[in-house]
Specification:
The protein is of the alpha/beta class and 271 residues long. The chain has ten helices and ten strands. Strands 3-4-5-6-7-8-9-10 form an eight-stranded parallel β-sheet. InterPro entries: AKR, Aldo/ket_reductase_CS, NAD(P)_OxRdtase_dom_sf, NADP_OxRdtase_dom.
Length: 271
């Protein structure tokens, strides 16, 4: 599995397993399958209510902890200096681990709350409880305001990214700050499977539509965390390193850019 080096030297596998909306034995089994098939990057969040099952699957896999990259996230109601510290401890306990590889602020809920949360995360980072810290669903403005007081630059901004919302400007901005992009919803929450142009490109390369969608992002250096609870799809989603897209493919996929969000606008997060 290819890896991306973050601005603090930590390496993250470029393909991970997303676990949004996966619960109970379903998420436990999907993480076990992913780890068995060579995944070493698992993405979860306090808000997903599945950290315990994810942690149990990781332990039961028998794979050494240090070989697995685990991401979790700080939920909106837990933002703030003291509450962030408490929330991190809860996540570590739920996951059954002593440190998390990446901890993200899940959504921006105001400049001051972000700054206070970040201060607590920086302290945990220096204490070794977190190997890298970052943000999720932050706009360029949100990042600019955070950087005014941050001592540690975020390593990642995790945002909705796919052919319909390719985030070219966001990626250029983040890269200029040394921040990598992670794409969630890379398959447009399933909408991409009805796209005839994507099906044509997939047939051309003898790959799945999901493979094409992921390759489009990975070739740009974007980390991807496709979510699936189906064994065959989990296996297929990592088979993206034995082919490349050509200029004709990329041009056709750029034509699918419509700017439509499937998830809330980070500037108008109502929860």
């Amino acid at each position: 599995m290819e890896k991306v080096k973050l601005n603090n030297g930590v390496e993250i596998p470029i393909v991970g397993l997303g676990t949004f909306k996966a619960k109970g034995e379903e998420v436990y089994n999907s993480v076990r399958v992913a780890l068995r098939e060579g995944y070493r990057h698992i993405d979860t969040a306090a808000a997903y209510k599945n950290e315990e099952e994810v942690g149990r699957a990781i332990r039961d896999s028998g794979i050494p902890r240090e070989e697995i990259f685990i991401t979790t996230k700080l939920w909106n109601s837990d933002q703030g200096y003291e509450s962030t510290k408490k929330a991190l401890e809860v996540s570590l306990k739920n996951l059954g681990i002593s440190y998390v590889d990446l901890y993200l602020i899940h959504w921006h809920k105001g400049v001051e709350r972000a700054r206070e949360s970040w201060r607590a995360m920086e302290e945990a980072y220096h204490e070794g409880k977190i190997r890298a810290i970052g943000v999720s669903n932050f706009t360029m403005y949100h990042i600019e305001k955070l950087l005014e007081t941050a001592e540690v630059v975020p390593v990642i901004n995790q945002v909705e990214t796919h052919v319909g919302l390719p985030q070219y400007d966001m990626q250029n901005y983040c890269e200029s700050k040394g921040i990598k992009l992670t794409a969630y919803a890379p398959m447009q929450a399933g909408k991409i499977f009805d796209n005839e142009e994507m099906a044509r490109i997939a047939q051309k390369h003898k790959k799945t539509v999901a493979n094409i969608a992921l390759r489009f992002l990975v070739e740009r250096g974007i980390i991807v965390i496709p979510k699936s609870v189906h064994e065959e799809r989990i296996i297929a989603n990592k088979e993206i390193f034995d082919f490349t897209l050509d200029d004709e493919d990329r041009e056709a996929m750029r034509g699918l850019w419509d700017g439509r969000r499937l998830f809330p606008d980070p500037d108008n997060c109502y929860f």
